[in-house]
Every structure is written in structure tokens, then in C-alpha cells.
Amino acid sequence: MNTQSMPASNSTPIGSAVIGFGGMGSWHVRKQCEMKEYFAFQGTYDIREERREAAEKAGYRAYPSLGALLSDPAIEFVVVATPNDTHLELVLAALAAGKHVMCEKPVAMNPEEYECMVECAERNHRVFTVHQNRRGDGDYLTMKKIFDENKLGPVFQIESRVQGSRGVPGDWRNQKVHGGGMVLDWGIHLLDQILMMTLPRKLTSVYAQLTNVTGTDCDDGFRTMLTFDDGLTAYVEVTTSNFITLPRWYMLGENGSAVIHGWDKKGEIVEVSDWENRDAVPVVAGVGLTKTMAPRTDDTIQHYPLPDVKGNWDLNYLGVYDCVRNGGKLVVSYDQERRLLALIQAIFTSGHTGEAVRFDDVWAASC
Ligand code: NAD
Description:
single chain; alpha/beta; 9-stranded mixed β-sheet; 5-stranded parallel β-sheet; 9 helices; 29% helix; binds nicotinamide-adenine-dinucleotide
């Protein structure tokens, strides 16, 4: 299924539920209620009584226990939206109870946990997928279109950043034991986008630095340089102590550059219209003069607006519907997720050793 297509909804909606009624769980509850044509939301379960009460106060059914939710035959499909270290146990329990499952990112703390989940899904013949929702972000889809349509000529560098200034939130997200840290939080989204955008290239090497400016138990950010088999490089950065931010996206091709500054998708494309016209009037640069670094004048470049690509945050849900009712293909395939989790491992390895890691990309061809 591509980003714009909608599966036919000519059969009954899928009975659905959400485990975990926190920040993201309540988003999923609202999403399932909103997509009535596809999903019939039944209720939610949270381990904390106050969150079950909050769900009831908001007008939703709160199951008193995990067992009560999983044994309800009206529920065919469950979303797991709990802290990262609880995903394995909850995904296995839901699959074993015969439910189709979509788990929040990062689906697992490591590749071994993920293989356990996949094995369980296959054994129980259930649909199992991951909520990689930022594949539907408008800024990403805009950059992907520019890349796919070769608007800048051969692209040699992509930069993707998110930068905050408040450190890591002071809950489970800054505790290693719960799968905290920015690599697993924002990193997994940005890395998934880059891996999908650059297919069918193979990733060949990974160099990373983990940051810890705020002194938390786990990383509060990271920077990584990814190199692909045709020489393309991607720089991905998530940091949390930035009081001045750099652009969200920056892409360099042989004939042009593109930028998206922030979430409002403001930016532009600049293309060179006369590459041979390289002569320039020298400009003063510090204590010297430079022609090399003199900015281009408007007679040799053209400015273009960015293509207007809308975001699609229903993509993962529509994909689940298509799989369960129409036997469609997973939007987030097992090999795509295996490749992403292997990259996360490589980032931690490089971050801890200070050395680049060779990446044996056995998945690119099947992604
Ligand atoms: P949160 O702390 O706001 O909510 C987690 C909820 O899970 C809490 O209410 C907690 O009581 C409950 N919980 C904990 N253990 C449980 C268990 N065993 N059974 C039932 N409930 C349990 O966290 P959050 O921000 O909602 O994050 C939840 C998950 O969603 C994480 O995996 C996170 O990475 C992911 N997330 C994804 C996105 C996205 O854009 N895809 C955005 C935010 C969070």
C-alpha cells in the first residue's frame, strides 16, 4: 500500500483496543474512535488505576485487568503503547491470546526480542506490525519526493535533525532499564525514514557519537553518519540541549540543494542554472577575500518552492486493516524492522567504541 491509497472497507470494522493509556495510548484511542469505518474501539487497559479512571472519565471503557481485555472476543486487534521494556511481554501475551498486534516503536529493546515476537506471530498466524508512523510525516514525504524525482541531480548528502532544549523527559524515558534515551525515542523514527528513503541502496558503514550533556542514565542524544554502497551519506542528529536549532532537513545534490527548516515545512529548493558560470566577484571573508566561498548571484541559480506533500498519519492503521481483512502486505515489513534494529545496535556499538562499524546489509534487497 502506498502513502495515498485507501484499502476497501467493505467488511466489518475490526474490534480494537489499546494497552497503555498514557500520552501515546490516548492518541491511539482517539485514532481508533475516529476511524470508525475501519475500527470498532472496545476499550483500554492501563496498569495504573489513575489512568484507568482517566480513561473512564474521558468516556472510554477501561478493562480492570490485562486478562479481561485479552479474553474479550469482541477484540481482534490490540495496540501496545506502554514503556519500551514492557513491549515484549505484552506483545507475546496479546498474540498468544489470538489478537492481531501493532506495537509502538521501538518495538523491542534489541533484535533478539523482536525475533521472539515475530516467531510468536507466525506460530499464531496473527498480523504483527510496528507503529512507524513518521513514514507518513509531510516533511519526510516532501524530501522523499525531491529525492525520488531526482530534482537536485544525484544526491550525495542528506541531513535529518531534530533538536530540543529541555533534555530527556524525566520519566521512564531517561532510564536505561526501561529503554530510555533519544536513540530509541526520536532516533528510531529518523533512522527509519532515512533507511526507507534511500532504498534500494545498501547501508555499508555506521559511525555514531552518543551525547549525554544533561547527565541522565542513558543517552540524551546522538549523531550518526551513515554511508551507503553508492557513496551517498546521511547525517542524522537528535539532540536535546540546543537553544538555536539547525534545519530539520538539508539535502545536497550535484545540481541543487533543498532545505526544510522546521515542522511548519517552510523551506525551498535552489538549483544551479549555469554550473559553468563559476566566476565570482571576491567577497570579504574575515581577514581575507574569497571567490570560492562567494555566494551565488541570482543569474546562475533558480529558487523553487517545495512540493506540497501532505502527511498521512492513518497509514499504519489502514495497513493493519488491509492485512487483517484483505490479506494485504504489511506496511512495516519484518525485514524493514530487522534492518532498523540492526542499525540501532550498530549506533550503540559505534557510540561506545568510538569506531565506525561495518554494516552487513542483508535486508536491503527484501525491503
Ligand atoms: P507514557 O508514560 O505517557 O504512557 C505509558 C502508559 O503505559 C502509562 O500510562 C503506564 O501506566 C502504562 N503502562 C506501563 N506498563 C504497563 C503495563 N505493563 N500494562 C499496561 N499499561 C502499562 O508513555 P508514552 O509516551 O505514551 O509512550 C508509550 C510508547 O509509545 C513508548 O513505546 C513510546 O516510545 C511510544 N511513543 C510513540 C510515539 C510515536 O510517534 N510513534 C510517540 C510517543 C511515544
